[in-house]
Design brief:
By secondary structure, the protein is of the alpha/beta class. Helix content is about 35%, strand content about 10%.
Length: about 375
């Protein structure tokens, strides 16, 4: 009996010991799973933070550029609206908004008299895109500069040239060639090259990268230094110092176009980083030039180069909400049926009338046509 009892107890003890081992193993397995989950969360959190730090550009130094560079325009007293009026602005869709969005006083930032811009335009179109209309023909930006005779020219290009496949040197080489063509066409104007504006942290355009914008801007500054042009770093007025991207309150929903507040900040920067040099123009433009000016054709393209798709209507023809009568109205849009070169509108023929003097008899012609002197028009584009 005693032997049987001891044998039974040993069996129970062994069963209890086995159960304990199983429970311990289960607990250890659960602890391993929980520990693995915790470590995984911590690992992903650390990686996300590292990715965020890598994604967020540190712009404090780079956006301001090298302040010792002679090409970089530095802080000045506010040059006022007169400075803007004597400047010819060349650019893409954000420059179009200069004419269509209004400041706090209800006036557009620029007018058709001092702005040539087209939605979707790249820097390569400066000498090839016939987008400035006069009553006697349509001209490229470089050709129109000679006609308008501005005191200075401010160019803002590069957004539509953004592409991961585009090398910085290739972009700069092309841009430099285009700017030199403007300089050759009208060498009496001061040339100011504006920085490419920052994009938002979120954009609708996969080709757009804040890192490439910064790389292009650094190269544009070096190009200006090399050629004796001035560089306007308006990037720093539009970028958030903490994130490096465009300030949320300045940018539109698509992440690259600026609203009225953003444009106001840009123009404050333009006026307070002014380049006031001696006026080198042999002559100023006559009012008759502007009487014959129709303005830029802003709708030159149907396909957005950043998406390879049709333009968003709000991008193609931007109009500020509650815009007043001063806002620029689009001139007749470019058509695929239109000639690729200068367009000349043929006036209706009228039989010439001889002027009469006080006696009612015809006067002898004095050899003067009495009209304005038109610029020489190239026979071929």
């Amino acid at each position: 009996m005693i032997s049987m009892f001891m044998t039974d107890n040993r069996g129970k003890n062994q069963n209890g010991s086995s159960l304990t081992k199983i429970l311990v193993m289960i607990l250890l397995a659960l602890l391993a799973v929980v520990l693995g989950m915790v470590l995984g969360i911590l690992y992903r959190s650390r990686n996300a933070q590292a990715h965020k730090e890598q994604k967020t550009p540190q712009i404090t130094e780079e956006a301001r550029m090298d302040t010792s560079d002679a090409a970089l325009l530095k802080l000045t007293a506010d040059a006022g609206n007169a400075y803007i009026d004597e400047t010819l602005f060349l650019g893409d869709s954000n420059t179009v908004r200069f004419m269509t969005f209004e400041d706090e006083d209800g006036y557009t930032f620029t007018t058709a008299d001092n702005t040539i811009a087209a939605v979707g335009m790249s820097a390569g179109g400066i000498t090839t895109l016939y987008c400035e209309q006069f009553t006697y023909g349509t001209y490229t930006m470089s050709q129109a500069a000679e006609i308008l005779k501005p005191r200075r020219i401010l160019m803002t290009f590069g957004t539509n040239d953004l592409n991961p496949d585009t090398k910085t040197d290739d972009f700069i080489g092309m841009y430099e060639e285009q700017i030199k063509a403007v300089e050759k066409s009208y060498p009496y104007a001061d040339l100011i090259i504006n920085s490419i504006p920052p994009c938002g942290e979120m954009t609708h355009y996969e080709k757009v990268s804040i890192d490439q914008i910064r790389d292009f801007n650094s190269a544009i500054l070096a190009m200006c230094t090399k050629n004796g042009w001035k560089f306007l770093n308006s990037f720093e007025a539009l970028a958030d110092e903490k994130t490096g991207y465009a300030k949320d309150e300045y940018i539109e929903y698509d992440g690259i176009h600026y609203n009225a507040d953003g444009l106001a900040a840009m123009f404050r920067y333009i006026r307070t980083h002014a380049y006031l040099s001696e006026d080198r123009r042999p002559e100023k433009p006559d009012q008759s030039v502007f009487d014959e000016l129709i303005g830029p054709i802003i709708e030159m393209f149907e396909t957005d180069p950043l998406t390879n798709e049709a333009f968003d209507p709000e991008v193609l023809n931007p109009v500020m909400e509650q815009a007043g009568e001063n806002s620029w109205q689009q001139v007749p849009a470019y058509s695929e049926d239109s000639p690729q070169g200068p367009v000349y509108d043929e006036p209706a023929y009228e039989e010439p009338q001889e002027p009469a003097n006080d006696s009612g008899t015809a006067e002898e012609p004095d050899g003067s046509d009495g009209g304005i002197e038109l610029p020489e028009v190239p026979l071929e584009p």
